[in-house]
Amino acid sequence: MFNHAERNLLHAYLDDELDLVRSMELEDHLAQCSDCTREVSSFRALRQASSNAELRYSAPHRFRTQLLAELSKVNRSQTPSVIAFRQIPVWSWAAVAACLLLAVTASVLNLSHGAQRELTREVVADHVRSLMATHLTDVPTSDQHTVKPWFNGKLDFSPQVRDLSGDGFELVGGRLDYVDGRNAAAIVYQRRKHVINVFSWLATGENAEPSATAQQGYNVITWKQAGMEYCAVSDLNRQELSELVSLLRK
Amino acid sequence: MASPAQSQDQMSRFETLVIPHLDAAYNLARWMTRNTSDAEDIAQEAMLRAFRFFDTFRGEDARVWLLTIVRNTYLTWIRRHAPQQNSAEFDERLHTDIETALTPESEFIRQATSEQVRRAIEQLPTEFREVILLRELEEMSYKEIAAVTQTPLGTVMSRLSRGRSALRQLIAAERRAEVTHHV
Q: Are A157 and A110 in a shared domain?
């Protein structure tokens, strides 16, 4: 019944991972086989030697204290820019908005520029909202083959989802969002502690090269490619955000 | 927007469910990096990440969930810091040849000091080291190890088996070195 070569089973036996029938088969075999019996006793000795409590490292006290302080700081303010944004009273935003509106009206800015700016403001707001609410992702996974199919039937396009972990951009997940009056996919990447939202939706018009702006301390890069409009938003510095954009455009 | 009460609640849930596993997180990071300062960086980053994504925690085993994050944080870190470091630390074929010739006696292994075992584990290749740590120090089941390492059960079993054979050889080598040293 029991095959000598099934070395893995010896370990499963030692680890109490075998079912009753298999355990009994194995014990029958051990009763007749001195080689396997010696193996079991040698590995049992090894387990004793390596489950020694002295091998455990505990977190140093200083480290633990620092970490707990850091966590409660993060808890109080998700990111510094977000708290700044939150602390500004509503009336001052209204004032800023009124000034902006005046400036825009008074200037000879063309319409599409104004629309672009409106769009930037909207995606930054979406980005900030995704960080503040406990709703960064609808489908939290680093597996691109899970994220992409999740959007099936939820959007009338299939968003680009890439595994860029080798380039230091980790895939965090995906989320359904709403940009410029239509459904959009938000693919969330992360570099160090910086969250990056890459929004995409169906576009009209020709391809457009990436163009970078900043708003409320967030960098925003937009481009159009293959009938899709993309917008990457993050508090990550512009250079690294551009790096992600060029990887996505490949 | 999360209200202060909500975030307070979130923090206390995190303190109850996740913080108790801080030592396990640090221990894994320490064994994977083999030094204190990198271990602290990784444990800290993993804890912050766990906190940020705490809403994705679905009430399963918090230790499994946290150690998965620690391991992923380590993998990202190692890719950035030392992409080639993982290869060829231990020639399994070579040691298997020795093994057929010489199976170490149980008593010989049992008498190994903590320091010898520690040095031997440190020499194991990463994929063996992690399963052995999760099994022997964390006392995780095969299923839990499979969840943390994101590998199939069969792979966990074969890595444990090969890892233990390798570890046994390394400990025997440490012991023999000690004996030779004393003579």
A: yes
